[in-house]
Amino acid sequence: MQTEILPEFLCTPEGREADAILRACVHCGFCTATCPTYQLLGDELDGPRGRIYQIKLVLEGQTPTRVTQTHLDRCLTCRACETTCPSGVRYARLIDIGRHIVEARVDRLWNERWLRRLLVAVVPYPRRLAPLVRLGRLLRPLLPATLRAKVPQYQPAGHWPKPAGRRRMLALAGCVQSVATPGTNAAAARLLARLGIDLVEVAEAGCCGAVAYHLDDRETGLAAMRRNIDAWWPEIESGAEAILVNASGCGAMVKEYGDLLAHDPNYAERAARIAALARDPVEVLGAENLAALGTPGAGRRVAFHAPCSLQHGQQLKQVVEPILERLGFVVTAVADAHLCCGSAGTYSITQPELSTRLRDNKVAALESDAPEIIATANIGCQLHLAGGARTPVVHWLELLDEAAASRT
């Protein structure tokens, strides 16, 4: 694609990056076939090709409007288009750049501004989020159905094995996961202990930075990334071999620390090292001898929901299902498994109507082959799907841990 980017943008690293991304696009339209919002709305401007064109026009000098902002807001950043694109267009990076430029030039409605500020001020901080979750559980019977569905059920963390001086990995505690499903990391610790690996959380680390960064509060997001790097670095220097990120959305973000902090002279080198050490649990378990776990599935029927952040963001496609099958589970068929469930970070809150439609479609696909349970790999997807499913929804590590524990 030919471009005529304004000099004011081309003189910045992001402007040059956007120009290179735009030039890679051949406008073939293959991406529209896998775009969830295009599938729902049928509007070219609500598909990747249309959004790319809108960002191009803004970078070339066209004044963005509220309409431009709305079309960019509707993007889930699911990155299914990147998986489909034959030219390797880095769409997710382009949409981040485009949103940032449009955000600076288009005034939001007051209610949107305050909602986004509230999300950035609360969600990434467990000490602020936890009291609200507890209050929601207390008031659950009185809440409207739409709100009641968003309140996670109480889950005890369970036993966390003490380090035994073996191989050591770090676990990202995160923000929402640490409050809503604290059992996920504890289940990972128990599973890894069976494989001879100690899993350790570093108290000073927290939110990966994705919530703030993707809501265009970049400095807050980057500050969270730097805090995590500072917290993890002594452990890395003392021999921790990997950073286990059990929420695939957070994992996709941590793996991009090197790119996002590439121009920070104080953090660029360490950020690249952290990104290289980040692992989704499927990468860790897939590399280990799982004989110690036996075959705990015992024929249990499981529908696996592959989060977009796993299959498109991290490009880890069809990797969890073989492990489940190897451990004795029966993995049921899921139609249109590449399509987003509608969670997409804070999307279920900022775009509730589209998010609910996507969730209902995904739940229907997951439940179509009569599974006993639905498993996924991301806290956002887990909570979102649970709000609309009749079938229990769990993190797949909890499923393995529960099954293995019942056979010991």
> What is the tally of helical segments?
24
Question: Which percent bin holds the helix content?
Answer: 40-55%
Report the CATH topology name of the domain at 292-405: Rossmann fold
Sequence stretches where pLDDT stays below 50 over 5 or more residues? none
Lateral arrangement of strands in the main beta sheet: 2-1-3-4
Number of strands: 8
Based on CA inertia axes, which overall geometry fits? globular
Report on the biggest sheet: 4 strands, parallel
Give your account of this protein's structure.
The chain is an alpha/beta fold. Among the domains are: 7-103, Alpha-helical ferredoxin (Fumarate Reductase Iron-sulfur Protein, Chain B, domain 2); 292-405, Rossmann fold (3-Layer(aba) Sandwich), CATH 3.40.50. It is built from 24 helices and eight strands.
Short structural description:
The chain is an alpha/beta fold. It has helices at residues 7-10, 13-24, 36-41, 48-59, 66-73, 80-84, 91-103, 110-122, 126-138, 145-148, 176-180, 183-194, 210-214, 218-237, 248-254, 257-260, 268-277, 281-286, 308-313, 320-326, 347-350, 352-367, 379-386, 396-405; strands spanning 167-171, 197-201, 243-244, 278-279, 301-304, 330-331, 373-376, 393-395.
Topology:
Layout: H1 7-10, H2 13-24, H3 36-41, H4 48-59, H5 66-73, H6 80-84, H7 91-103, H8 110-122, H9 126-138, H10 145-148, E1 167-171, H11 176-180, H12 183-194, E2 197-201, H13 210-214, H14 218-237, E3 243-244, H15 248-254, H16 257-260, H17 268-277, E4 278-279, H18 281-286, E5 301-304, H19 308-313, H20 320-326, E6 330-331, H21 347-350, H22 352-367, E7 373-376, H23 379-386, E8 393-395, H24 396-405
Helix pairs in contact: 2-7, 4-7, 5-7, 12-24
